[in-house]
Write a structure and sequence with these properties.
Chain B: Pfam families: ABC_tran, DrrA1-3_C. The complex is a heterotrimer of chains A (about 70), B (about 300) and C (about 260). With about 70 residues, chain A is an all-alpha fold. Chain A is built from 3 helices and no strands. Chain C has one domain. The chains are: A mainly alpha (about 70), B alpha/beta (about 300), C mainly alpha (about 260).
Chain lengths: ~70, ~300, ~260
């Protein structure tokens, strides 16, 4: 692979990384603010940080107890 | 001003509320008294429009025909649940607007009632952080927000600790000034303390109703309680033979005589005691309580 | 009308407070651009992994741009729809189950208003996310593959929106019928799977079936004009959605809020 191609690839993928970052930050803020999670709260922290993309989404969908 | 006629509710063919009828006077505070499972909650939920009765009618004097009865009613369920992500004030404004207040009116009233029920200091905090007592107060505020003609409270104090209970009872006492209050309870003393009238419910039926005073009149008889240093069986027999005395029973604390004529019985007992030289340690004249009435009605 | 706005504003406030306005669009962007990007970079990635022996020519056919855009739709029709269902299942059922509905419905709230306001709020959230996702996808497709005319893109988005509206309506309908949100999701997914099976078996007879929206949309890109089947399918999808909404009013009114 040419170096130029790698550069181009990174440039195009940069927005993805930014989005992923936004998602994780939002999930972390939500995690801090949530009093009640389904299951232990610290486990959700690991999921959010370790499972890229899927972790934050899972947390948003099923992690929080809300009413 | 509020009439309920032949109200009936069945769940799976089992009648939970059986053909009850009653009326409420404007400005009254009425307790719906009954043991758990008597049908109190079901009754209140029908009156608030959450359940559809299988029969009977609910009418409001002065209500426009065809009007939504819910406009005239405020309701507090036994376990009120709020959106935990909202603040107390936001919630009040929200339900106020749902009850056709403008945003400004709703905001003003939310502030007023937060103050009134004593949680103004936490009005801007998330409801998720509220204690049970605060939620109950917020619940009362949301029931009052649209100035209903009547509010119905389902077991408003039964889940509270003694202090919270006292505070909420005092609050309800104050609410009587503004509106008609109907609340359910299984605790007679709560009912006696703040209500003007009682509806006694048992197994889905209203067995007895009336003002507190009239029920006292109807069911109360005088009693004289005695205690002696030493207790002997013959004392019981002797007391029973005295004029003006009905039933005589003994318990751990002493002897209880139900009396027909207090004055006559008092003299007779005291004379007897002096004659026999019994060592009297306690003598009191009192009346049977509503508790006794409640037990009597329920066990009929 | 005021009640309607009150409920909708409350829903939007909730979407802010629980970050839905942030994460749902972000996820839709991901779903929309995943396939265009991976398709374009697959040769490069394979190359860099060095999986191909020297001299072997690995031909990946150049995909036409519309087909790449349709890949975005197919991701959304899977994961996007799943997210929509999971976020919509509790709309009515959850409020009833938790007991919040008690406090709301003792106020003089008209049931159709209550349901429609929530329905529209959900639709606004998901369509916003969908449109943003498709915009980003369009940008990447134009950059990496071929230009897709704006009108074609716009029509794609508009017509596919009807399918998402249908999914929301279906889920809300089940949400008024059943009290358990999990069950609502299961039944909604089941219904959609059933519909797609029916569609694949009888597709020749059921040209106006909602599930065939995307294949008609592809036709649109090929021919450059709106095929009549697309109009028909869109019409059927809208009618079904509105029908489900009215059915929701009906079931909700009949249901006791116990």
């Amino acid at each position: 692979m040419e170096l130029a191609e790698v550069g181009e690839l990174l440039e195009l993928l940069l927005p993805l990384f930014i989005l992923q970052f936004i998602l994780m930050i939002a999930a972390l803020i939500a995690w801090v603010k949530t009093d009640q999670t389904k299951g232990p709260k610290w486990v959700w922290l690991l999921i959010i940080i370790l499972a890229n993309l899927v972790g934050p989404i899972l947390f948003f969908i099923i992690g929080r107890r809300q009413d | 001003m509020f009439h309920v006629q032949n109200l009936t509710k069945k769940f799976d063919r089992t009648a939970v509320v059986k053909d009850i009828s009653f009326s409420l006077e404007k400005g009254n505070c009425v307790a719906l008294l009954g043991a758990n499972g008597a049908g109190k909650t079901t009754t209140l939920r029908m009156l608030s429009g959450l359940l559809k009765p299988n029969g009977g009618s609910i009418t409001f004097e002065g209500a426009e025909p065809g009007a939504d009865i819910r406009s005239y009613i405020g309701y507090l369920p036994q376990y009120p649940v709020f959106h935990s992500w909202m603040t107390g004030k936001e919630f009040l404004v929200y339900v106020g607007q749902l009850a056709h207040l403008t945003k400004q009116e709703a905001t003003e009233r939310a502030e007023y009632y937060l103050e009134r029920v004593g949680i103004a200091n936490v009005g801007n905090q998330k409801v998720g952080k509220y204690s049970g007592g605060m939620k109950q107060r917020l619940g009362i505020a949301q029931a009052m927000i649209h100035k209903p003609k009547m509010i119905m409270l389902d077991e408003p104090v039964s889940s509270l600790d003694p202090i919270g209970r006292r505070e909420v009872l005092t609050l309800m006492e104050e609410l009587k000034e503004d509106t008609t209050v109907l609340f359910s309870t299984h605790i007679l003393t709560d009912a006696e303390e703040i209500s003007d009238a009682l509806l006694v419910m048992h197994h889905g039926e209203i067995l007895e109703q009336g003002s507190l005073a009239s029920l006292r009149d109807k069911y109360q008889s005088a009693k004289i309680e005695l205690a002696f240093k030493t207790f002997e069986e013959e004392q019981l027999e002797a007391l029973k033979a005295l004029p003006g005395i009905g039933e005589v029973t003994a318990n751990r604390d002493g002897i209880i005589c139900l009396v027909d004529d207090t004055e006559q019985a008092r003299q007779a007992i005291l004379t007897k005691v002096t004659q026999e030289n019994w060592a009297l340690t306690d003598f009191s004249v009192s009346k049977t309580t509503l508790e006794d009435m409640f037990m009597e009605v329920v066990n009929k | 009308m005021k009640q309607f706005m009150t409920i909708m504003r409350k829903e939007f406030l909730e979407y802010w407070r629980n970050f839905s306005w942030i994460w749902v669009p972000v996820v839709f962007i991901f779903l929309s651009i995943m396939d265009p990007l991976t398709t374009y970079y697959m040769p490069i990635i394979l190359d860099s992994v060095g999986g191909l022996p020297e001299g072997a020519v690995f031909e990946i056919p150049e995909l036409p741009a519309p087909e790449v855009l349709m890949m975005s739709l197919s991701e959304i029709s899977m994961f996007g729809v799943l997210i929509i269902i999971l976020l919509t299942m509790g709309t009515i059922a959850g409020e009833r189950k938790s007991g919040i509905a008690e406090l709301v419905l003792v106020k003089p709230v008209k049931y159709p208003i209550y349901i429609t306001a929530k329905w529209l709020a959900k639709i606004k959230l998901f369509l916003t996310a969908f449109i943003i996702g498709m915009l980003v996808s369009w940008y990447y497709v134009n950059l990496l593959f071929d230009t897709i005319p704006f009108t074609d893109w716009l029509l794609t988005v508009i017509f596919y929106s009807f399918w998402l509206v249908f999914v929301v309506s279906l889920t809300i309908f089940y949400s008024t019928l059943l009290k358990n949100p999990g069950l609502v999701a299961a039944v909604s997914v089941g219904t959609l799977i059933g519909m797609s099976i029916i569609n694949s078996i009888f597709s020749h007879h059921l040209t106006w079936f909602p599930n065939s929206l995307s294949s008609h949309i592809l036709e649109l890109h090929k021919s450059g004009s709106i095929p009549s089947e697309l109009w028909g399918t869109a019409f059927v999808t809208i009618v079904l959605s509105i029908g489900l909404l009215f059915l929701s009013f009906f079931t909700f009114q009949k249901k006791e809020l116990a």
